[in-house]
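fold description:
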Amino acid sequence: MISPTASASGAKLNSTLGGSLKNTGDIFASVGAKYGIDPALLAAIAVHETGNGTSNAVKNKNNVGGMMGKNGLMTFSSVQEGIEKMASNLKRNYIDKGLTTIEQIQKKYAPNGAANDPTNLNSYWTSGVKKYYDLFSK
């Protein structure tokens, strides 16, 4: 189970975050505290989803979590808003519904065989997020 206690400081996160995520560690920390989500989990998902801040989704749409809407990738006004919306979504639609481990979250967040995943990248989601979570939470 993912601890809701902040395991990663903004400064610690900043040492690894790159691209459009560079120097957003304090945002992950404050948003994590606001929603009761470990900032290490938020940052791990964002790093995995965006190739550590280098994807077109984050560079062009400030979408840090690969969040989809009716018309494809959602667009946010800033990376901070993208982090906030990802955390709000995780809280309401996952954690509050008992999906509290990376494995449980993956089955809904990035399910294997999803229509929007023709190259089966979702099969790497759990191991990728865990790798970054372990890095940020130690």
